[in-house]
Design a protein that fits this description.
With 177 residues, the chain is mainly alpha-helical. 72% of the residues lie in helices and 0% in strands. The chain is globular.
C-alpha cells in the first residue's frame, strides 16, 4: 500500500510539474535567466508545502524524519555534477522525467545520461570513499545546531517562501499571479 501511495503522490507531483510548465526547456531557461518566474514560484511553493508536510507527518508520528549525514566533499562533487548536467541539458532530474513522459527526445537522453552517471558513480565510489567520508560531519541540520525542534525552522521558512512566491516574485509583465 505504501508503494502504491508513493506512486500516486509521484504521479500527482509529475502532473503539477507538467501543468506548471516545468517540463518546458524554454520555461526552465527563462527561470535560470530570471526572465520567467513561473518555475521559481512553483519550486518555492513545492518546497514550502513539502517542508510543512514532512514536519507535520513527523510530529503526528506518521513518518520518521531521518537526515542523511553531511559529507562536504561528496556534496561539493555532487553539486558540480548536478550543475553541469543541468547546464548542459536544461533539465533537472524531476523535470527530465516529466518531459520524457511527454515524449521529448532530449529529456529521454538526459534520463539515460543520469542513469549512466549514477552507474559510473557507484562503480567509482569505492576509490573515493575515504576522501568523501573524511568530511563526514554527521546528521547536521540548522535545527540541531540551534538546538530547537525543526518545525520552528520549517514554519518561518515555508511562510517566507510562500510570501516570496505569491507576493514578491514578478514575471516579465509585472504580475505576481
Amino acid at each position: 500500500m505504501k508503494l502504491f501511495m508513493g506512486f500516486l503522490i509521484g504521479c500527482a507531483f509529475g502532473a503539477i510539474l507538467q501543468l506548471g510548465g516545468a517540463s518546458s526547456y524554454r520555461k526552465i531557461m527563462g527561470a535560470l535567466l530570471l526572465k520567467d518566474m513561473t518555475i521559481i514560484k512553483l519550486i518555492c511553493t513545492a518546497i514550502a508545502v513539502g517542508t510543512i508536510g514532512i514536519y507535520a507527518l513527523d510530529l503526528a508520528d506518521m513518518a520518521k524524519l531521518d537526515v542523511k549525514p553531511t559529507y562536504v566533499v561528496g556534496i561539493a562533487i555532487a553539486g558540480l555534477i548536478f550543475g553541469a548536467g543541468f547546464a548542459i541539458s536544461g533539465y533537472c532530474p524531476g523535470t527530465c522525467v516529466v518531459a520524457s513522459a511527454e515524449g521529448k527526445t532530449d529529456a529521454m537522453v538526459t534520463v539515460l545520461g543520469g542513469l549512466v552517471g549514477a552507474l559510473l558513480y557507484a562503480l567509482a565510489y569505492p576509490m573515493f570513499k575515504g576522501l568523501i567520508e573524511v568530511t563526514n560531519y554527521g546528521k547536521v541540520t540548522l535545527a540541531s545546531v540551534a538546538n530547537i525542534d525543526g518545525i520552528w525552522i520549517a514554519l518561518p521558512l515555508s511562510i517566507g517562501l510562500l510570501v516570496l512566491s505569491f507576493l514578491v516574485l514578478k514575471d516579465r509583465y509585472g504580475s505576481t499571479a
